[in-house]
Amino acid sequence: MSQTNWPSEPLLQQPAFKVAGSNPGSRENALALANHAYIRAESIWKSWGLTVEDVMTLSDKFWKMHMDPIAWHDGCSITVMTIHLNLAIGTIGTYAKDRPDLQKLCQDMIEAKAFGQFCLTEAGHGLDAYNLETTATLQDDGSFVLNSPNRGASKYMPPTVPVLGKPCYAIIWSRVIVKGADWGVRPMLVQLNDGTHMCKGITSKLIPTRHGATPVNHAITHFTNVKLAHGALLGGLGEKPASHEDFLVAIWRISVGTLALAALAIPALQISSYIAYKYSARRLVGAPNPVPILSFRTQQIPIFTAVAQTYVMTAFQKYVVKHFTDPASPHQVRHAFSCIFKAVVMEHSQTSHFALSERLGAQGLFDYNQIVTQF
């Protein structure tokens, strides 16, 4: 029988099979969970007393917040928090010195009166984001018209759907067109929605939730003839087109996020090693005189190795942050530090998480034991 003609194929049209492997209420559940994630995110940064100045200066408080174990109570909340604080406020604040309107917006965002997003990648452009196709065309009156010229140019992943009835503003990285000429990729500040409805000319389509992780309300965002005031262009037009180097400097907060989010692997590994240790200490085997499985070297080595790694990673994080925040360091060096830190920490942490999960036997596969939900 040909494998292209399975007798079971018609079953896929039956209701019982249409929901297999997915949540039939995934959209509603994802939106509800996203609302809770924003509430949790706000609670976390406010518990730290974070200010706009902390975000802009990359204070010790900013970095310590990204080592807080509470982040692993809900990975979605830390995702939206980092986008909101680091990418949105961090980027807008860079251009706010002589812009009272931007200063007020940053303050509204830190107070959670409004939410921020950062829309760089597109459906057709991920790692090659510099080749993005979204356009912001300069008009004769100084305004701009924002467009996604095709479906591949739609912004991909940023969670732009309305939440909690609060307005959302985003930095839309766009190719600025001046009299038909390409003036490079620039940041445009755009209000996406009012917290309930999308703004005119902007659509946001929720994409399917990712399994194995707390869902973020990721979306595909499309722009059709969206009219923007001249001030929407952050940093001004300048006298010449923006170069690739200008683009890399402008998106430097991505490197901040790379370092900050990678640091979350440290509390994750601390939590996992603690869980594995407690389980191994109380799990008894053997008869008639049972002993804890922690007495076996096969349990001790992965657990104690993970604990040792957390101490080394913590010291490494402090070293990298010191050099990353050095004003004398060029952005290429900062980027290198963040990438190296992420590569090293994620490799060791992920490997240790798998080893620790295996030490818990069947119980290591369940969400409530947390380890498998972190990586």
Automatic annotation (TrEMBL):
Any GO molecular function: fatty acid binding
Gene3D superfamilies: Butyryl-CoA Dehydrogenase, subunit A, domain 2, Butyryl-CoA Dehydrogenase, subunit A, domain 3
PANTHER family: ACYL-COENZYME A OXIDASE, ELECTRON TRANSPORT OXIDOREDUCTASE
Domain Acyl-CoA oxidase C-alpha1 span(s) in chain numbering: 266-372
InterPro entries (UniProt xref): ACOX_C_alpha1, Acyl-CoA_Oxase/DH_mid-dom_sf, Acyl-CoA_oxidase, AcylCo_DH-like_C, AcylCoA_DH/oxidase_NM_dom_sf
CC terms in the record's Gene Ontology section: peroxisome
GO BP: fatty acid beta-oxidation using acyl-CoA oxidase; lipid homeostasis
Protein name: Acyl-CoA dehydrogenase NM domain-like protein
